[in-house]
Structures are given as C-alpha cells and as structure tokens.
Amino acid sequence: MTTKDKFIKSLNKFFSEPVLILTIFPALLLFFFVILLRPFILFRFGFFHSDRLGHFTVNSEIFFCEDLQIRKEKKVIDFYYFPTKPCNYQVAKMINRKVNVYPKFLIRPFCLISRSLSFLSSHVTGRSSNSDYDTSHLLDKTKFQLNLSKKEIEIGDKIMKENNLNKKNIICIGVRDSSYLKKAFKKQDFSYHNHRNDDIKKYIPGIKFLLKNGYTVIRMGSITDKKLYINHKNFFDYSNSKIKSDFMDVYISYICKLFISNNTGLDGIAVMFRKPILHIGSLPFGAISTFSNRYFNTMSNYYSYEKKRFLRQTEIFNFNVQYLWRKDDFKKKKIRIIHPTKNEILKYFKETISMLTNYKKNKDHMLLEKKFKKIYSKYVKKYPDGKKQYHNIIKTNILYSFLLINKHLLR
Questions:
Q1: 159 and 84 in one domain?
Q2: Which site among 124, 281, 325, 375 is 20 to 30 Å from 19 CA-CA?
Q3: Are residues 262 and 379 in the same domain?
C-alpha cells in the first residue's frame, strides 16, 4: 500500500468515526513531541485484532515473540487498544497482564497518525510481520508469551473435577460450521466461507477410535449447528454444555494433548500454547500451516468440472487457484472443494495418534512426503501470493495415509 493509499484510508476512517473530530487534533499536537523524543525513547501505538479468535490469539502471540528482540535494542513505551469488543475476554485478560491496554478513543488517533505516513512507521506496534503465519518459526524457538496464571489453572482443574472430566489425555475437536459467524456477526455476510465448513458427524468414527484408545475427547466451539450424541463417559460436547465460557475455551486448549480442526479460529488458542495440531482438509492449498513440525496436515481436494477429476498439485498452482479464499472465486473457476470422507478422517486420526506416541515414519512415507514437499516448496516460491508470505521452511508433517489416498498431489 502506497503512502497516498494509507493517507486516504486514514481519512475515510476519520470521517466514519465522529469521535476522531475531537481527538485527532490534540493527538497531532502531542505527536510533535513524540517525534522530538524519538532519539531517547520510542513511543509506539497499536491494537490487537480482537474481533476474530484466530487472529486475536496467533497474531498477538507472534507479535510478542517478535517484539522480544526490539525491546532488547530500544527503550520503548507502548500504548494499545482493542478496536472491538474482545471475542474472548480471557485472551484479553492475558494480553492486559502482558501490556497496558487503554480506551480506544484515546489511542486510536495516535495509531491512525503513525500508520498514515511511512516516516512514522517506527511508532507502529501490535502488528505481527505476517499476520497469523509464523514464517520466522518463532513459536518453535520461544516460550509462549501469553499464559494462564497458577490460580486460573487451579480454577480450571476444579471445574473439570466438578464435572467428572478426566484432564489427562485430552484431545480437542473443533469443526467449523456457519453458526458462529452468523450469530456473532449478524450484520455481515460470511457465506463466502461456507466451502470451508464441514459436517461434525463425519468425525464420529474417529472420535470413537480415540475413546476406545483411552483418550478424553472434548468437542469445542462456542456456537455449533449440531449436537453430538456419543454415549461414552470420556466424551464431552463442551460446545453445548453449561460450563462453556471464554475462560474454559482457553483452559481446555491449554491442557489438551492434541487439537484436531478443519482450520477454525478456535485452534488459534492451541497454536498459541504450542500444542500439536491435526488439520483436516486444509484450505486454501497454497496457504496451509507449514511453519512447525507440530502440525499434521491433510488437504481438501480441488475438483475441476472441466477436467472431470481432481487437480494435481502442479495444476492447482499453474491454474492460479492456490490462494483462493472465497466460495464464489472457486465457482468462477469451475472448481468444487471436496473435503475428506469419514473413512479418510478415521485414517488420519489413527496415523496422527501413532506419530504422537513415538511412531517413526517409514521409508516409503518419507519418500512420498519429500516428493510432495519438493513440489510444494518449488511452486509456492514460483507463484507467491504477492500480499502475504505464507511459508519459509516447510516443517509440517504430511500424513502418509493422506499421500497414499491422494497420489495425484504428487504430480
């Protein structure tokens, strides 16, 4: 974005928020002194993406990891705000313990000024370098920056005990559907994300496998379309329970051994706490999470109506559909997204559990995975997004069962 574009964007925000008429001019005056003091102390202004859980957790955690080095080099004083009502008050509380968060009307004018002109960019803070993509692999190198307190952990332990829930060997499952966005953002149309939704009932065979093998399975989510009726003492549909809360969203993700999801924002809490993640049917193909070996990846298929078959990996890139996020964009390209079947999901569950319990990849797995990653690495470099960097070292695990089922992706 050019300086002119940034300035116009800031002007539009200025006219859309009447309170800025009262606050922007005093902020401009004070900013003069902020610039004068810059050689001695750096004042920075920023916000956290408080509207969507994935960004609220992962963007914030990556930012704090990146900021560790800056604070070693410079003396800084930061001022933050939440631009919206926090989507999770426990995460907001943890951020407040880390830094000072002030009322929006006080800090927003300073934030707009610092983001409008490039020579003021050093006064911008709260922004991770690549949104929720850890392309510097900092989450593998640092301890988590946002954490639960000892007292909070004790409270969570007590709630689990009162509800006869075993806190050992917990596996969380969060499957995105349309219900949360419809209720949380009533005035916005998020139907363009519908192709990313899946049916939780396809996960039942996998859940039963986990229960049979001694795991406690907790179905996560604050708002879900369907209830799951599985009669087992170690299954808990938390998303439709009385103990559901912002705090327990965080606590349960904190104590889990594995988080299974189809790329829903809720797994951002598990990412923040450095938990293993199994992604079922990752989308879009060119933007899967590859920055840690804690990820176990499977992808959805791109069915071409013109070719009457699934696209090969090279075709997905050559046809320039690897970074499509919207349902209508796939429709224009005459492509239908095909998610994994219930039998495939069961295989992915079994393999991930094996890998987490000291199973070593066999030679055939390593060869197929190497072939997949070689193509993937080559083509994400050949066809970059242009807006965002999604990858650095491709560290993720590509499941053997997925590669055997989808050999067309090895071409």
A1: no
A2: 124
A3: yes
What's the token pair of residue 179? 């219900």
Cα separation, 230 vs 284, in Å, equals 31
Q: Which residues contact 190 (CB under 8 A, 6 or more apart)?
A: 178, 181, 182
β-strands 335-338, 301-304: how paired? antiparallel
Which residue in the block uniquely carries the two structure tokens 């990858």?
A: 391
The per-residue pLDDT for range 139-197, each reduced to its tens digit, is: 999 999 999 999 999 999 999 999 999 998 999 999 987 665 556 555 665 565 577 88
Residue 81 falls inside a structural domain: yes
**Got the DSSP string for 2-24?**
-HHHHHHHHHHHHHH-TTHHHHH
Report yes or no: 302 and 314 within 8 Å, Cβ to Cβ.
Answer: no
Amino acid, single-letter form, for residue 387 = K
265 and 295 in a single domain? The answer is yes
The alpha carbons of the chain give a radius of gyration, in whole angstroms, of 23
Average pLDDT over residues 360-376: 96
List the beta bridge partners of residue 301. Answer: 338
DSSP symbols for 34-84: HHHTTTT-EEEEEE---SSHHIIIIIHHHHHHHHHHHHHHS-EEEEEE-SS
Inter-CA distances, 7 with 11, 52, 121, 131, Å = 6, 26, 13, 22
AA identity, residue 288:
I
> What is d(CA 51, CA 355) in angstroms, rounded to the nearest whole number?
35
Q: Whole-structure pTM over 0.90, yes or no?
A: yes
